[in-house]
Design a protein that fits this description.
The chain is of the alpha/beta class. The protein has seven helices and five strands, in the order E-H-H-E-H-H-E-H-H-E-E-H. Helix content is 55%, strand content 9%. Helix 1 runs parallel beside helix 3 and helix 5 packs across helix 6. The protein is elongated, with a radius of gyration of 21 Å. The termini are far apart.
Length: 165
Amino acid sequence: MIERLLDSVILIDHFNGISKATRFISGLDPSKTAISVISRAEILVGFDADSLEKPKALLDQFTLFNIDKATADKAAALRREHGWKLPDAFQAALAVIAGVKLCTRNTKDFHPATHSLWKYPTDLNADSGIRNELISRLVMDQLKEREAVKDLFLKERQTLETDPC
């Protein structure tokens, strides 16, 4: 029996190399966990066509919740009520209709006081360092990119000095 709908943000964290998200996902029972067609699309769009094997293998372990008329109607009502973006409203609607917890760390849209249906993995909240880890990775990537550009510039300069034509 499905107990939880895993939100895209946790999967995205996993694929971005956030170890806390990876540990969290690894600890889930796939037979009790679902993802939505929205999450599947949001995850797969982040990969090149030639690198889809690993993400699909992980996603295929989970039950896939599809969107039907009842879900669309509920999502529309939730969007009107809470002002959520449509993908968030669909995630919430799927969880409500299935009677499962929406497992997310998105407390901006799914505030804990709003509804008892949301589940927030305590070791994945924004205050636990995930945001800082992502920023650190971004800064390191930018520094590496700058170094690569600098190296390229120096090589080009050397080439021009030795052979100006």
